[in-house]
Amino acid sequence: MTWIIVIALVGVLAALASAGVFMLRKPGAPTQQGPDRRMARALAVRVGLSVAIFLLVLLAWKLGWISPKGLPTGR
Predict the structure, then answer these.
(1) How many domains does the chain have?
(2) How many helices, marked H, and strands, marked E, lie in the chain?
């Protein structure tokens, strides 16, 4: 379960980085999809992955795959 969440978080960071690249790239040769559309798609992927991670964590908690440990109190 931990690896799935880590891989999804890396995917979120990659989508965020690609959106930043598309935002900073100057329009060069005309393409079918401009940088604005590509940036919006990358940000939509990031939001989708974030929601999927949240739902996966809730599902894993409900099914008992993970359990909250809390913070150690030192007692």
Answers:
(1) 1
(2) 2, 0
Q: Give the position of tokens 């931990």.
A: 2
Domain membership flag for residue 10: yes
Domain assignment present for 73: no
pLDDT digits (tens, 9 = 90+) for 12-51: 899 888 888 887 876 665 555 666 788 888 888 889 888 9
Domain span at residue 11 reads: 2-21+35-63
Instruction: Give the contacts of 52 (CB within 8 A, at least 6 positions apart).
Output: 8
How would you write 39-72 as a 3-class SS string? HHHHHHHHHHHHHHHHHHHHHHHHHCCCCCCCCC
d(CA 23, CA 26): 8
- Model pLDDT, residue 33: 62
Q: Tell whether 17 is covered by a domain.
A: yes
